[in-house]
Amino acid sequence: MPDRGDATLLPARVRADFPILSRRVGDYPLAYLDSANTSHKPQAVIDAIATHYAEHNANVARAMHMLGAEATAGFEGGRAKVATFVGATRPEEVVFTKNASEALNLAAHTLGQHLGIGPGDEIVISVLEHHSNIVPWQLLCQRTGATLRWFDVTEEGRLDLAKADAEGLINEATKIVSLAWVSNVLGTVNPVADLVARAHAVGAIAVLDASQAVPQFGVDLPATGADLVVFTGHKMLGPTGIGVLWGRYDLLAELPPFLGGGEMIEVVTMERSTYAPPPARFEAGTPPIAQAVGLGAAVDYLTALGMDAVAAHEQAITGYALDRLNEASGVHILGPTDTKDWGGAISFTLTTGDGFAIHPHDIMQMLDSRGVAVRGGHHCARPLHKRLGIQASTRASFSVYTTPQEIDQLVDALAYTRDFFGRH
């Protein structure tokens, strides 16, 4: 087995910080390998949210009493921490939403209106996108008469740039290019700087879905050249119910509102309204206050670990899992064949000795009975699975707390599953 580095150093430091990891599933320790779906939360994040509700709970930007000031400080403090974490030039570039899906819908609605998208215009995505980076653009095309086009993938699961060039995929008609930084199914890390440059070369707006990237390695969003980037809190050790839209401030200042009401206004009369500058313009109503506090705590936690250490661990544990799964009988790994430009997720299929394909839902249930939590299905990426010629797959995905022993437990459980179905 090739040397994949030490995949044990980070988990040894952090596992005690995650209360849920001490749980058992029957006779087995919990091996949580579903972090691309949602990550677990360290005690520091849990405590930050509990303390907010216990000591500082109030609405923000409108209550002038002590608790209101404290809540506002916590909320805006979370924004400032996120801004620093992703390399934003100012906190006002960070817009809080309820998740990355809402952020992508915000981008589609506001860009469609701002750019005057209509018939003859083209929007480019890829076949490996999460549904959240497909459906909002489909809806925009349905509303406006624009055309949706997409990158294909190679047999190795990487964007087929050569085919795109041959087809003239990105051209003068292209108005928006929206792509995942890291595939949530294959773990493929896309060459975002090159893709953004291709978009800008024809005057298009570049949007990135960084939901799987921000938790796994250090990012500098302005350095990508992208115009808008979205990600979500619950995959980066933070709470559910909060997502982020980062954008170039000059672009955000030009975009129209997405939702109306609450603190997104300057002046309201019965005839018309004027709107606040970003980010308030895009944060109608009571925002995710406690979630922003919790996300700030998650940023503090990741910063203390060091994103270089996080990235090194993701690479090491993914490499270890790749080696073990390649040794396992009946396992066929989807996507890249090495860990170069590969994030912390591996999707695969499993067959018995006589070639019977075991359904991922059955695999998921069998593994769960032996303490291993994975995801089975199309992972909100049905077009990619259709492109790969399968209906569904099983995915194991990793985070800072994932150990080699959990990978071993996965491989043992897969062998048990294969034997079970091979006898029936």
What's the helix count?
A: 14
Q: Roughly what fraction of the amino acids lie in strands?
A: 15-25%
Helix content: 25-40%
User: What is the topology, as strand order, of the major beta sheet?
Assistant: 4-10-9-8-7-5-6
SSE map:
Layout (H helix, E strand, L loop, with lengths): L8 H6 L9 E2 L2 E2 L1 E2 L10 H14 L9 H20 L8 E4 L2 H16 L6 E5 L8 H10 L2 E5 L9 H7 L6 E7 L11 H10 L3 E5 L11 H4 L3 E5 L10 E5 L1 H6 L10 E4 L4 E3 L13 H17 L1 H21 L3 E3 L11 E7 L5 E2 L1 H9 L3 E2 L1 E3 L4 H7 L4 E5 L6 H19 L2
Parallel strand pairs: 3-16, 5-6, 5-7, 7-8, 8-9
Antiparallel strand pairs: 1-2, 4-10, 9-10, 11-12, 13-14, 14-15, 14-18, 17-18
Helix pairs in contact: 2-10, 3-10, 4-5, 10-11, 11-14
Would you write up a description of this structure?
By secondary structure, the chain is an alpha/beta fold. It has helices spanning 9-14, 43-56, 66-85, 100-115, 135-144, 161-167, 192-201, 221-224, 249-254, 289-305, 307-327, 360-368, 382-388, 404-422; strands spanning 24-25, 28-29, 31-32, 94-97, 122-126, 147-151, 174-180, 205-209, 228-232, 243-247, 265-268, 273-275, 331-333, 345-351, 357-358, 372-373, 375-377, 393-397. The mean pLDDT is 95.
Short overview:
This protein has 424 residues and is of the alpha/beta class.
What structural keywords apply?
424 residues, alpha/beta, seven-stranded mixed beta sheet, five-stranded antiparallel beta sheet
